[in-house]
Amino acid sequence: MNESSARAVTRRALLGAGAATAALATTAAAPAAASGHRTPRSNTHVVLLGTAGGPSLLQGSDRHGISSAVVVGDRYYLVDAGHGIYHQLLKARLGNWNKLPAEPLDGLRAVFLTHLHSDHVSDLATLFTSGLFAGLDRADPPVQLIGPGDRGVLPPVFGGVPEPAIVAPEEPTPGTTAMWHHLIRAFATDYNDRSRDNGKPSPHNLVEAHDIVLPSELAADPNGTPHPAMNPIDVYEDDRVKVTGILVQHAPIFPAFAFRFDTEDGSVVFSGDTSPSDNLIRLADGADVLLHEVMSVAAVEEGFPKPRTPQQEGLVQHLLSAHTSIEDVGPVAERAGAKKLVLHHFVPPHRPEREWRNAQKGFSGRLIVGQDLDVINVGTGRSRGQR
């Protein structure tokens, strides 16, 4: 079991940065969790608010953008903020969902961003702007917004395309804190109007953003491959949960993080977007639940048949090197010793469930093919919808 799970969970302030391989086995595919609301059976549980990966909207898929909630009692913590999260909070019955008007955000304590690709942050502004009228001002203030910092240098150009014009050359790679400050400025008209019209506080008084600080040696070469080996670092802790993080391989995006949540009930790990990562396996050691992204290589090959243009080949190579295939995800979970593997962040999101179930190969634990609004219990009880 990860060393961090053995530590007592006590209330503390936001923390700065500073830390058994099993035999592969194959079992019959376990039934996937079904959609539809059910009452959770454990004090700590995960709600899959959205399970689609990538910024594309594809016909044949009703999955919302990637986002999950770790619920501990009457408080919850979000991981990523993909499209549709605001309405999904209500459907998931989080916070004070049954009030008129509903205030699901009154139970929110923190938001963790694995990385700053648009599909992971597209509804962040909606969450906190519309959230002013959905309980944000009643949450235990300030809500913490925690994610990657400024990478400091642009990534290389892929696919042989000409050097593109740089967006915001004075600050081309803002991190979480800078992004939040820019969003506040972008919505200044709305915030100033509403504060004068109905006395609502501005989100910049209710949300406190932080960049995850990496040791200098780990951040020295953002374009280096692969990501540097490291031990988990402390990211956040309060009286209910301890969160640790680690770098994963999602080049050219850097930093990209996986997160581990340890509570009195057990442990849950989010892979973030990554190819197979030894760092992730280290972080997920003995986890009760590992939520891992997954990609269909067959879908990539079908979408970009040969012969390919240099631009298409560059995109294909990025997809193959920055994500984890169906064939690889089971062995990753097995090496980590995870008890339960939950697939989410499906790339692309519209593939049939039977294809995703092939991830059971190489994993001896329980596989769940995630659906939007599934509840995954941590520590005790069964996951919602298991047959």
Write up what this structure looks like.
This protein has helices spanning about 85-90, 120, 125-130, 175-185, 190-200, 280-285, 295-305, 310-320, 325-335, 355, and strands at about 45-50, 65-70, 75-80, 110, 145, 205-210, 235, 240-245, 255-260, 265-270, 290-295, 340-345, 365-370, 375. It has one domain: Metallo-beta-lactamase, Chain A, CATH 3.60.15. The radius of gyration is 20 Å and the shape is globular. The chain is α/β, with parallel strands linked by helices. The strands form two sheets. Strands 6-5-4-3-2-1-14 form a seven-stranded mixed sheet. A seven-stranded mixed sheet has the order 7-8-9-10-11-12-13. The chain contains ten helices and 14 strands. Helix 6 links the parallel strand 10 and strand 11 (about 290-295).
